[in-house]
Design goal:
alpha/beta, Rossmann fold, DNA polymerase, domain 1, about 40% helix, about 10% strand, binds xylulose-1,5-bisphosphate, binds magnesium ion
Protein backbone atom coordinates (compact mmCIF):
# COMPACT_ATOMS: atom_id res chain seq x y z
CA UNK A 1 0.00 0.00 0.00
CA UNK A 2 1.36 3.45 -0.96
CA UNK A 3 2.13 5.30 2.27
CA UNK A 4 0.87 8.92 2.50
CA UNK A 5 2.94 11.73 3.93
CA UNK A 6 3.42 11.14 7.65
CA UNK A 7 6.24 13.45 8.69
CA UNK A 8 8.05 16.69 7.95
CA UNK A 9 11.82 16.70 8.62
CA UNK A 10 13.44 20.10 9.09
CA UNK A 11 16.99 21.31 8.78
CA UNK A 12 17.73 24.18 11.19
CA UNK A 13 20.38 26.65 10.08
CA UNK A 14 19.27 28.55 7.02
CA UNK A 15 15.91 26.76 6.98
CA UNK A 16 14.07 27.47 10.24
CA UNK A 17 16.01 30.72 10.63
CA UNK A 18 18.69 32.61 8.71
CA UNK A 19 21.29 31.93 11.38
CA UNK A 20 24.66 31.84 9.69
CA UNK A 21 25.80 35.36 8.70
CA UNK A 22 24.47 37.32 11.70
CA UNK A 23 24.33 34.44 14.21
CA UNK A 24 26.92 31.68 14.05
CA UNK A 25 29.54 33.84 12.27
CA UNK A 26 29.20 36.59 14.91
CA UNK A 27 29.38 34.01 17.72
CA UNK A 28 32.56 32.49 16.27
CA UNK A 29 34.19 35.93 16.11
CA UNK A 30 33.14 36.76 19.69
CA UNK A 31 34.63 33.46 20.89
CA UNK A 32 37.86 34.11 19.00
CA UNK A 33 38.12 37.57 20.57
CA UNK A 34 37.33 36.15 24.03
CA UNK A 35 40.19 33.65 23.53
CA UNK A 36 42.59 36.42 22.51
CA UNK A 37 42.87 35.10 18.95
CA UNK A 38 43.29 37.44 15.98
CA UNK A 39 40.97 35.26 13.88
CA UNK A 40 38.10 37.15 12.31
CA UNK A 41 35.68 35.56 9.87
CA UNK A 42 34.29 38.16 7.43
CA UNK A 43 30.91 37.61 5.77
CA UNK A 44 32.77 36.61 2.59
CA UNK A 45 35.26 34.24 4.24
CA UNK A 46 32.47 32.62 6.26
CA UNK A 47 30.65 31.92 3.00
CA UNK A 48 33.68 29.87 1.90
CA UNK A 49 33.97 28.15 5.29
CA UNK A 50 30.32 27.05 5.09
CA UNK A 51 31.50 24.43 2.61
CA UNK A 52 32.26 22.44 5.76
CA UNK A 53 29.41 21.60 8.12
CA UNK A 54 29.94 21.44 11.86
CA UNK A 55 31.55 24.27 13.81
CA UNK A 56 34.49 22.21 15.07
CA UNK A 57 35.15 20.82 11.61
CA UNK A 58 34.82 24.35 10.16
CA UNK A 59 37.50 25.75 12.50
CA UNK A 60 39.89 22.94 11.55
CA UNK A 61 39.17 23.61 7.87
CA UNK A 62 39.93 27.31 8.46
CA UNK A 63 43.32 26.48 10.02
CA UNK A 64 44.17 23.99 7.28
CA UNK A 65 43.27 26.30 4.40
CA UNK A 66 43.22 29.92 5.58
CA UNK A 67 45.51 30.19 8.62
CA UNK A 68 48.31 27.67 8.20
CA UNK A 69 50.68 29.98 10.10
CA UNK A 70 48.80 29.58 13.36
CA UNK A 71 51.00 28.04 16.04
CA UNK A 72 48.87 24.98 16.86
CA UNK A 73 48.69 23.69 20.44
CA UNK A 74 49.72 20.07 20.99
CA UNK A 75 46.12 19.07 21.67
CA UNK A 76 44.49 20.81 18.71
CA UNK A 77 41.23 18.86 18.99
CA UNK A 78 40.92 19.80 22.65
CA UNK A 79 41.69 23.43 21.85
CA UNK A 80 39.03 23.50 19.12
CA UNK A 81 36.49 21.75 21.34
CA UNK A 82 36.97 24.38 24.05
CA UNK A 83 36.69 27.19 21.50
CA UNK A 84 33.51 25.60 20.18
CA UNK A 85 31.95 25.46 23.64
CA UNK A 86 32.66 29.20 24.03
CA UNK A 87 31.15 29.86 20.61
CA UNK A 88 28.00 27.92 21.49
CA UNK A 89 27.65 30.02 24.66
CA UNK A 90 27.98 33.18 22.57
CA UNK A 91 25.50 31.91 19.99
CA UNK A 92 22.82 30.86 22.49
CA UNK A 93 23.23 34.27 24.16
CA UNK A 94 22.53 35.96 20.80
CA UNK A 95 19.41 33.81 20.44
CA UNK A 96 18.29 34.72 23.97
CA UNK A 97 18.49 38.39 22.97
CA UNK A 98 15.98 37.58 20.19
CA UNK A 99 18.53 38.51 17.54
CA UNK A 100 17.60 35.68 15.13
CA UNK A 101 13.93 35.40 14.10
CA UNK A 102 12.35 32.45 12.30
CA UNK A 103 12.12 32.78 8.54
CA UNK A 104 8.78 33.73 6.91
CA UNK A 105 6.16 30.99 7.03
CA UNK A 106 8.10 28.68 9.36
CA UNK A 107 6.07 29.28 12.55
CA UNK A 108 2.84 29.15 10.53
CA UNK A 109 3.70 25.79 8.89
CA UNK A 110 4.97 24.23 12.13
CA UNK A 111 1.81 25.26 14.01
CA UNK A 112 -0.47 24.00 11.22
CA UNK A 113 1.38 20.67 11.06
CA UNK A 114 1.07 20.31 14.82
CA UNK A 115 -2.64 21.17 14.83
CA UNK A 116 -3.30 18.63 12.08
CA UNK A 117 -1.29 15.86 13.68
CA UNK A 118 1.51 15.78 11.11
CA UNK A 119 4.60 14.26 12.75
CA UNK A 120 7.77 16.39 12.79
CA UNK A 121 11.47 15.87 13.31
CA UNK A 122 14.68 17.87 13.10
CA UNK A 123 17.85 16.79 11.29
CA UNK A 124 20.69 19.27 11.69
CA UNK A 125 24.44 19.56 11.84
CA UNK A 126 24.38 22.20 14.54
CA UNK A 127 24.80 21.58 18.26
CA UNK A 128 21.68 20.43 20.20
CA UNK A 129 21.92 23.39 22.61
CA UNK A 130 21.60 25.73 19.63
CA UNK A 131 18.41 24.02 18.45
CA UNK A 132 16.89 24.12 21.92
CA UNK A 133 17.72 27.82 22.28
CA UNK A 134 16.36 28.73 18.83
CA UNK A 135 13.07 26.90 19.42
CA UNK A 136 12.63 28.19 22.98
CA UNK A 137 13.31 31.82 22.07
CA UNK A 138 11.15 31.86 18.94
CA UNK A 139 8.30 29.40 19.60
CA UNK A 140 8.22 29.17 23.39
CA UNK A 141 9.47 26.73 26.03
CA UNK A 142 7.30 23.75 25.02
CA UNK A 143 8.11 23.91 21.31
CA UNK A 144 10.94 21.40 21.56
CA UNK A 145 8.23 18.78 22.25
CA UNK A 146 6.62 19.49 18.85
CA UNK A 147 9.45 17.42 17.35
CA UNK A 148 9.60 13.67 18.02
CA UNK A 149 13.33 13.68 17.28
CA UNK A 150 15.97 16.38 17.37
CA UNK A 151 18.81 14.73 15.48
CA UNK A 152 21.68 17.17 15.90
CA UNK A 153 25.44 17.60 15.84
CA UNK A 154 27.77 14.78 16.83
CA UNK A 155 25.01 12.17 17.26
CA UNK A 156 26.17 10.66 13.95
CA UNK A 157 29.77 10.00 12.85
CA UNK A 158 29.44 11.78 9.49
CA UNK A 159 27.78 15.20 9.21
CA UNK A 160 25.98 16.57 6.14
CA UNK A 161 26.39 16.12 3.15
CA UNK A 162 26.46 12.51 4.43
CA UNK A 163 22.89 11.15 4.77
CA UNK A 164 23.52 9.83 8.30
CA UNK A 165 21.61 12.47 10.24
CA UNK A 166 18.42 12.00 8.19
CA UNK A 167 18.71 8.21 8.27
CA UNK A 168 19.20 8.37 12.04
CA UNK A 169 16.13 10.61 12.47
CA UNK A 170 13.90 8.31 10.36
CA UNK A 171 15.12 5.23 12.25
CA UNK A 172 14.26 6.89 15.56
CA UNK A 173 10.80 7.81 14.20
CA UNK A 174 10.38 4.36 12.61
CA UNK A 175 9.61 5.95 9.25
CA UNK A 176 10.70 5.29 5.67
CA UNK A 177 11.67 8.01 3.18
CA UNK A 178 8.40 7.38 1.29
CA UNK A 179 6.41 8.80 4.20
CA UNK A 180 8.55 11.88 4.83
CA UNK A 181 9.59 15.12 3.15
CA UNK A 182 12.62 17.26 4.07
CA UNK A 183 13.10 21.03 4.25
CA UNK A 184 16.61 22.32 3.55
CA UNK A 185 18.56 25.44 2.51
CA UNK A 186 21.94 24.36 1.14
CA UNK A 187 23.75 22.01 -1.22
CA UNK A 188 25.27 20.09 1.71
CA UNK A 189 21.77 19.81 3.12
CA UNK A 190 20.04 18.49 0.01
CA UNK A 191 22.88 16.05 -0.68
CA UNK A 192 22.22 14.68 2.80
CA UNK A 193 18.41 14.53 2.54
CA UNK A 194 18.31 13.17 -1.03
CA UNK A 195 21.11 10.79 -0.09
CA UNK A 196 18.75 9.43 2.56
CA UNK A 197 16.04 8.99 -0.09
CA UNK A 198 14.03 12.06 0.87
CA UNK A 199 12.09 14.41 -1.35
CA UNK A 200 13.26 17.91 -0.45
CA UNK A 201 11.82 21.43 -0.48
CA UNK A 202 14.43 24.20 -0.50
CA UNK A 203 14.28 27.77 0.78
CA UNK A 204 17.44 29.60 -0.26
CA UNK A 205 19.36 32.34 1.55
CA UNK A 206 22.13 34.75 0.55
CA UNK A 207 24.82 32.11 1.01
CA UNK A 208 23.03 29.34 -0.89
CA UNK A 209 21.09 31.05 -3.70
CA UNK A 210 23.55 29.81 -6.36
CA UNK A 211 23.83 26.24 -5.04
CA UNK A 212 22.80 23.23 -7.15
CA UNK A 213 19.25 22.24 -6.20
CA UNK A 214 18.47 20.18 -9.31
CA UNK A 215 17.30 17.30 -7.09
CA UNK A 216 14.80 19.47 -5.18
CA UNK A 217 11.02 19.05 -5.46
CA UNK A 218 10.66 22.84 -5.18
CA UNK A 219 13.00 25.80 -4.62
CA UNK A 220 11.59 28.96 -3.02
CA UNK A 221 12.98 32.21 -1.64
CA UNK A 222 11.01 31.46 1.52
CA UNK A 223 7.85 29.59 2.64
CA UNK A 224 5.72 32.71 2.20
CA UNK A 225 2.85 34.10 4.26
CA UNK A 226 -0.68 35.12 3.25
CA UNK A 227 -0.11 38.52 1.66
CA UNK A 228 3.66 38.00 1.52
CA UNK A 229 3.92 35.53 -1.36
CA UNK A 230 6.93 33.33 -1.99
CA UNK A 231 8.92 33.43 -5.26
CA UNK A 232 9.30 30.08 -7.04
CA UNK A 233 12.93 29.71 -8.15
CA UNK A 234 12.58 26.12 -9.44
CA UNK A 235 9.76 23.60 -9.64
CA UNK A 236 6.57 22.61 -11.40
CA UNK A 237 4.20 25.56 -11.08
CA UNK A 238 1.22 23.38 -12.06
CA UNK A 239 1.33 21.64 -8.70
CA UNK A 240 1.23 25.00 -6.98
CA UNK A 241 -2.22 25.89 -8.38
CA UNK A 242 -1.36 29.57 -7.95
CA UNK A 243 -0.51 29.19 -4.23
CA UNK A 244 1.54 32.07 -2.78
CA UNK A 245 2.65 30.41 0.46
CA UNK A 246 3.48 26.86 1.50
CA UNK A 247 0.83 25.29 3.72
CA UNK A 248 0.37 21.66 4.68
CA UNK A 249 -2.06 20.95 1.82
CA UNK A 250 0.51 22.14 -0.70
CA UNK A 251 3.27 20.08 0.96
CA UNK A 252 1.04 17.00 0.71
CA UNK A 253 0.26 17.75 -2.98
CA UNK A 254 3.99 18.11 -3.69
CA UNK A 255 4.70 14.82 -1.93
CA UNK A 256 1.92 13.06 -3.86
CA UNK A 257 3.17 14.44 -7.17
CA UNK A 258 6.77 13.46 -6.48
CA UNK A 259 6.82 9.85 -5.24
CA UNK A 260 10.03 8.97 -3.40
CA UNK A 261 12.38 6.99 -5.65
C1 LIG B 1 24.56 24.22 9.79
C2 LIG B 1 25.93 23.88 10.20
C3 LIG B 1 26.34 24.13 11.61
C4 LIG B 1 26.28 25.62 11.91
C5 LIG B 1 27.13 25.98 13.12
O1 LIG B 1 23.78 23.12 10.20
O2 LIG B 1 26.68 23.36 9.39
O3 LIG B 1 27.67 23.67 11.75
O4 LIG B 1 26.85 26.33 10.81
O5 LIG B 1 26.67 25.25 14.23
P1 LIG B 1 22.36 22.76 9.48
P2 LIG B 1 27.73 24.46 15.14
O6 LIG B 1 22.22 23.61 8.22
O7 LIG B 1 22.47 21.27 9.19
O8 LIG B 1 21.32 23.10 10.51
O9 LIG B 1 28.87 25.42 15.42
O10 LIG B 1 26.96 24.08 16.38
O11 LIG B 1 28.14 23.28 14.30
MG1 LIG C 1 21.05 24.36 6.72
Amino acid sequence: MKEGLQALLFDVDGTLADTERDGHRVAFNLAFEEAGLDWNWSVELYGELLAVTGGKERMKYYLDHFNTEFNRPADLDGFIAELHKAKTAQYTALLAEGRIPLRPGVARLLKEAREKGMRMGIATTTTPANVQALLAHTLGPDSESWFEVIAAGDVVPAKKPAPDIYTWAMEKMDLTPESCIAFEDSENGIKSSVGAGLRTIITVNDYTREHDFSDAVLVLDNLGEPGQEFTVLQGNKNTLNGAGYLDLALVQRLADNHPAE
